[in-house]
Amino acid sequence: MKSSKITFTNHKGQTLSGRLDLPLEQDPHNFAIFAHCFTCTKDFSAVRNVSKALASQGFGVLRFDFTGLGDSDGDFSETNFSSNVEDLVSAAHFLASEYKAPSLLVGHSLGGAAAIFAASEIESVEALATIGAPSNPVHVQKQFGEELSTIKDEGEAVVRLAGRDFTFKKQFLDNLEEHSCENAARKLNKALLIMHSPQDATVSIKNAEEIYHAAHHPKSFVTLDGSEHLLIDKKNAAYVGKVIAGWAARYIAMPEKEAIKSNHQVAASLDGDDGFTTLLKLGNHYLKADEPVRVGGDDYGPTPYELLAGSLSACTAMTIQMYAKRKKWTVENVQVHTSYSKDYATDCEDCETNDGAKIDTFKREIVLSGDLDETQRKRLLQIADKCPVHKTLETTTQIITSTKE
């Protein structure tokens, strides 16, 4: 995942801070916005891990701090549920202006409730996923404890949540009471995925049931059995992100899987506007080759020479293990580290003045793990030089080129 800091302004002109998480080896096929949980931030572990999982599936994900939280400007005490919804709409405007309009909204806890309302106001959004969301935003009042009555009676109070002090005003409570996720879900004309844990002790799974019954199809429910409300466990958060990505593919526009028809073992395809990013068909498998950014590429895949060195490394490892198994020698692991360069031939004369004396050089280091004596290790290093790709690289080869209509 590639992650970069971004800022944008909300409807009041305040600067909100976020991070844009992008896939490593491709341009994003879709963009998503993540709404974090109550009084959390964009850097909360669940937010990072779910976003990372979505990015690994090709999504660009904008996660940001709501007004008055984290690195965003504004006074938290002046915010409310409605301002969170407005911030999400502002985030969508930012993506549409600078990148691509979001097609997916994801919200955690109260952020999930806000996402239900925001989805109706963001035309480009085609799918919405909530995680542990309350069916009524008023639910968060349970976290105020004895200070709830103080807020109602005196107009405001300082509430300590997760080790931090927050000032809440009566307008915050009044605003919560004006919103019902059930009512919003009834009006929602988007695909909806509801994810909730039956063990959630903060927001009962009853809330998921109420949202589900209120919403129209297409709607889906996935149980997060064994998870706690905040998704602290990295594996649970990664699971959530991958499930959302797989589910969303059914409802949002996804690019058709690239394909190359060929009767050859390997084929490459490169469009004129793709720079160096080349699609490769290797047998039944697809991957991308590219060049580093420093030479004008996008670094979406290995370079051609890295692929060549990779072939040598893989073939060497396979050959060593195959020979060891035949001999019934225990090689627990073999690592082959290879680098490529053009070096002067060892025995050349006038190397400094004769460019033709430079030859292609692969430097290979082999690490053998296992109960092996010195004789066995030496033999396995000899076998490494007999791997088929090694032999191919050392022999004179010919390349016969023709054109095909």
From TrEMBL:
Keywords: Hydrolase. Gene3D superfamilies: 3.30.300.20, alpha/beta hydrolase. InterPro entries: AB_hydrolase_fold (IPR029058), Hydrolase_4 (IPR022742), KH_dom-like_a/b (IPR015946), OsmC/Ohr_fam (IPR003718), OsmC/Ohrsf (IPR036102). Transmembrane segments: none annotated. One of its GO terms (molecular function) is hydrolase activity. SUPFAM superfamilies: alpha/beta-Hydrolases, OsmC-like. Residues 47-132 form the Serine aminopeptidase S33 domain. It comes from the Bacteria. PANTHER family: OSMC-LIKE PROTEIN (PTHR39624:SF2), PROTEIN INVOLVED IN RIMO-MEDIATED BETA-METHYLTHIOLATION OF RIBOSOMAL PROTEIN S12 YCAO (PTHR39624). This is Alpha/beta fold hydrolase. The lineage of its organism: Bacteria, Pseudomonadati, Bacteroidota, Flavobacteriia, Flavobacteriales.
